[in-house]
User: What shape does this take?
Amino acid sequence: MTEIHEGGCQCGAVRYRFTGRPQTLYLCHCRDCQKQSASAFGMSLWVARENFEIVQGTPKVWIRGAASGGQVICSFCPECGSRLFHAGAPDSEVVSLKAGSLDDTSWLKPAGHLWTKSAQPWMRLDGAFAFEGEPPDDEILTACYAD
Assistant: This one.
């Protein structure tokens, strides 16, 4: 039986769904994630784009630069402004969901942390990995994830 997970924005105007197992979940402590989440970190849940769909509404898109030199396509609700997901390119095979936008977050267990050099000093860094910045490759992010 395939698992189905659903989520959406705060006001309910945009809703999404994905099926299957996520590829990874990590906490990012970069200043961009701190600002977009208005918190100490952002949660990034990678899912295969082929298993992801918008089921209601149309997100608005904003594009920003990434620390890697690339671009991040940020999708959010045009009504309430809730950030919903990111992608590195329009044809990216992975969508990085903002995990707090899921209807049920009780099953989430982050594998580790990125951009720890920007982490709040009171933050406890548990998990299989902790990188001061970007990891050397994405494989470690997916290899360490177990839901």
Summary: The chain is about 10% helix and 35% strand.
